[in-house]
Amino acid sequence: MATEVKVPTLGESITEATLGAWLKQPGEAVALDEPIASLETDKVAIEVPSPVAGTMGDQRFKVGDNVAVGAVIATIESGTAPAKAELPEASPVNPRGAGENIEVKEGEADEEDGPHLTLSPAVRRIVLEHHLDPSRIKGTGKDGRLTKDDVLAAAEGQKAEAPTPAPAPAPAPAPAAPAPVKAGDRREERVRMTRLRQTVARRLKEAQNSAAMLTTFNDVDMSAVMAARAKYKDLFEKKHGIRLGFMAFFVKAAVLAARDVPAVNASIEGEEIVYHHYVDVSVAVSAPSGLVVPVIRDAQDLGFADIEKTIADFGRRARDGTLTLADMEGGTFTISNGGVFGSLLSTPIINPPQSAVLGMHRIEERPVVKDGQIVARPMMYLALSYDHRLIDGREAVTFLVRMKEALEDPTRLLIDL
Asked: Which residue, of 42, 193, 333, 416, has the fewest CB within 10 Å?
């Protein structure tokens, strides 16, 4: 008897996804809740678990097809795969390849080598690309799961251990043939945009078309923040188990400034302005499939350690491909840190329905005038892009000035000034 596997509910307003990969082939044993397919939505990749234990049956869509919520994409047959079943050659869903016959009992697929064999989409992609056997890689993630760094290290080790092929015997003389036409450097490659990249492109263009977008700038002397970090970073890490970074200072400063300029944390809905009495900060994080923006909820209630732990968790899960739709829904204000990539200055684009986004940039020593003297100071440019329909220039400038004041005198963050 076959059990249907349907596309699960994907989140608010999301009605379809793209089939990114089949993680099981017909005839392979499948454990209860084991992922059999990966779907790409507008925001994240989602794995579809098997509702029963059995054998992978019919696959009704191919990779790249769009599938609607509730659609039947495959079936799971009752029973198990035959022992010593011959597996197909290495393929995007079978990195082990031919020649490795595996006997799997019902409900035990992939579990005999540890829980790390439940792979995230990002990790699975690397395993497939390099034809690695995940059961032979030691996982350093939670509960022994494989991380992206684990499989990249294994891939490098595999390259180093690969034997040097013996030189081929000289071929017999062949009749002269016309020399092939050299393509030079004018090669082209066409790659289908991922669903995430298509969504990013569409939303950014919509933001430009619908909002009256403007950017204002300021700079901030980071001396005080850097001194505070240097003084307390060891004690902070010892007490909280997390490093003290710059983002916590900027999140706290943005929350403080938003109290004075609430329009920056507001949004437009139809003919109404919605003022949020909480600050949910979207933080831009780089992931293998593109930029994602998970949300720090109720940032106004969080301390430095809570903020740093949340951001670190987002970064780790973005690399592993385990962020969920719930992590990225909502958000009232965005902070994007292009400085980690070396950006000196930029004009970030707002993330609708939000009305403002803060751009951080790299810190570099520049000459500034202090008390009549030219001195070198670690300076950072700040950029605030905002929707001029809601936020006036005076409010945008005031917001950045409040942030500058708080960052150049971090004591203000503690006494709410």
From this structure: 416
